[in-house]
Structure formats: C-alpha cells, structure tokens
Amino acid sequence: MRILAQISRLRQACCNPLLLAPETDIRSSKLGTFMDAVVELVASRHKALAFSQFVSHLSILRSELDREGIGYRCLEGSTPAHKWKQEIDAFQVGEGDLFVITLRTGGQGLNLNAADNVTHMDPWGTRRLRTRPRTALTASARQGPSPPVDS
Predict the structure, then answer these.
(1) Does the pTM of the predicted model rise above 0.90?
(2) Do residues 54 and 129 make contact, with C-beta atoms less than 8 angstroms apart?
(3) Cα–Cα distance measured from residue 9 to residue 55, given in angstroms and rounded to the nearest whole number
(4) What's the pLDDT score for residue 35?
C-alpha cells in the first residue's frame, strides 16, 4: 500500500508541485502550458473540457482561471446532484469557455457536446484510468459537434 501511495504522490508532483507542497515557489510547466492553450482557445472562440483525477488539481486550475478572468463551469464529486444539470446546461448555452471536471464525474454519461477540445491534465497509471480519456472524448462528442473534437 505504501508503494501505491508514493506512486500517487509522484503523479501529483508531475501534475503540479503545489499539490504536495502548497508553500513552494516552483511553477508548474504543465499549468503554464495549459493556460497558454486556454487563452488561445478562448481567443479563437473555442470551448473546452479539462479533466483531472485530482480534485485538488482542479482547485489550482480554477484559481488560475479566476486570476485570468476566464469563465468556466465545474463538476466534481462534491457538487450536489441538483447542481449538475445547472452546470451542464449553462455550459451548453455558452456560459463559460471551459468546463473543469473530475475524471470520475465525467464518467457518469454526461453530454457536453458544446466543447470542441478536451484536455487531460493527469498522467494515468492504471488500466482503468487509462480508459477514461476515451470516456472524456465521448462526453464531448455525443451527438457530435461539428467540427470534430480535438484532444
């Protein structure tokens, strides 16, 4: 069990050093690249989904999006069931350029076809988690947007 816990910590460090050491000054190159891509997508009038396995990683993403003034919607495991439809419907009609979502929540059969881009923020280490990107693309491609979804 200790080995699995350490592997999970290593994965978190690869996502963003702040996940393990909130006081660190080390900047996440992954976050910088993500934000560059988001700014470009928004400027080009695209909508995107951003998936992470770690809720704490989504929290970092949301803070950065807030700092940059980029509108987004969010679903994670703690989101009350009655708010799911509100968040999804708001994104589908154009409220928010980005939808940040946990992988587990995204695997619930959501229809987010307003998005034309999907970003996976985490590396996946298990077979079960490696199948989740297909689930994410499926969530954005149901009843298919045109043009096709990029990932």
Answers:
(1) no
(2) no
(3) 14
(4) 94
